[in-house]
Amino acid sequence: MKFKQGLIAALAVIVVLVVVYILGYFSGSGSGLVNFKVENRAREKIASAEVEFDGGAAWVEDVNTGSSKKTTFYLRNESEYRLVVRFRNNRTLRTTPRTANPGAEITEIITDSAIVRSY
After folding, report:
1. Range 15-37 burial, b when 16+ CB lie within 10 A, else e
2. Per-residue pLDDT at 4
3. CB 35 within 8 A of CB 101
4. Strands 79-87 vs 46-53: parallel, antiparallel or unpaired
5. Could you tell me if 68 and 39 are in contact, meaning their C-beta atoms sit under 8 angstroms apart?
6. How confident is the model at residue 8 (pLDDT cuts 50, 70, 90)?
7. Which alpha helices (H) appear in 1-119, and where do they start and end?
């Protein structure tokens, strides 16, 4: 009798875990890594590029002219972000708010006078 009750309890725990996993999967949790690339097409080296998003920030540093660097951050839901680029001479470029989705691959192209999102 104790064995049967233990088996029923174990099966109940397994069913609850499966249901929680399925709900988490369909709610989008766990799939929110954003791959973010900064590509420098400006004539000057980028000292830093910071991505500010809901819940945090990520950055890359020392991006030479003609090269690119990547960073990764986590988003649980669709979120706005801003990119702030600082050149070696302290000149700064900023974006207006832009949208990122969990799992996105984003490339921002930096020129001498603008930041352009590549689609």
Report:
1. eeeeeeeeeeeeeeeeebebebe
2. 75
3. no
4. antiparallel
5. yes
6. confident
7. 2-26
In this prediction, residues 49-71 reach a mean pLDDT of: 96
DSSP class of residue 10 equals H
Compute the distance between CA of residue 99 and CA of residue 71 in angstroms, rounded to an integer: 17
Reference 32, options 60, 74, 61; nearest CA is 74
Q: Are 93 and 42 in contact (CB under 8 A)?
A: no
Give 16's pLDDT tier (boundaries 50, 70, 90): low
Q: Do the beta carbons of residue 85 and residue 96 sit within 8 Å? A: no
d(CA 69, CA 48): 11
pLDDT at res. 113: 96
pLDDT range class, residue 90, cuts 50, 70, 90: very high
- Residue 112 DSSP label: S
